[in-house]
Amino acid sequence: MRVRNLKAEDIKIIYEDNHLLVVEKPVNIPSQEDESGDADMLTLLKEYIKNACNKPGNVYLGLVHRLDRPVGGAMVFAKTSKAASRLSEQIRSREFKKTYLAVVNGAPAKHGSLKNYLYKDNKTNIVSIVNEGKEGAKLALLDYEVVSSVNNLSLVKINLNTGRSHQIRVQFAGIGNALYGDRKYGVNSSKDGQQLALWSTSISLAHPTLKEVMTFSSNPPRVYPWDMFI
């Protein structure tokens, strides 16, 4: 499906109530409008709410977190400003739990924690690992475990403790295990036409009004290289 032809009804709804909208983001769709002019998640989902609820005028939908354009999977939006504020606070306090699956090159240690300081060059949109203390650098933390390894590729489950731009891609490239299909940080580990193998597989949060912990899941597509593991 071409990105420009994507419609609101093409997006899978995982969960919806008066406060939350949880969806499965397709790959290669921007989280919000950018210079490409391609369809984006925020605009499409506002259109969905407007049509489904027959709402006139502007529709509120809060973008509380983002997924990189080539990344697919579970993504949460807030349907009210109160929900957006409470979810944003959960993200700041690290109560908003995000789990990813990735296929990486090589075989990292079976279990590990990665701690780095990351700096984003806004002119090039490139993120680099830098020394602590560099102006503008942000702490990046994640834990991971290797689920299995086949043919010099490994399926890795990642618990993301901070939500820095390009964090997973940069940190795994930094230990010599760049993600499959990552042409930006892969250093000759991928070729044209390969899709970045990174998927938002689970999000846990406290419902903004009910307060109960809820978990939403999404599975990667059964295509290469995912089909080697799933």
Taking the sheet with the most strands, its summary is:
11 strands, mixed
- The mean pLDDT is 92
Structural class: alpha+beta
What is the terminal separation in angstroms?
23 Å
**CATH homology group:** Pseudouridine synthase
Number of beta strands: 11
Query: Roughly how many Å is the radius of gyration?
Result: 18 Å
Query: Mind telling me which CATH architecture this is?
Result: 2-Layer Sandwich
Order of helices and strands: EEHEEHEEEEEHEE
Overview of the structural elements:
The protein is of the alpha+beta class. It has one domain (3-228): Pseudouridine synthase (2-Layer Sandwich), CATH 3.30.2350. The protein has helices at residues 41-53, 81-92, 167-174, and strands at residues 12-16, 20-25, 62-63, 72-78, 97-105, 111-121, 126-130, 138-150, 153-160, 198-206, 213-217. Strands 1, 2, 3, 4, 5, 6, 7, 8, 9, 10 and 11 form an eleven-stranded mixed beta sheet that branches. β3 (62-63) and β4 form a beta hairpin. The longest helix has 13 residues, at 41-53. The chain is globular.
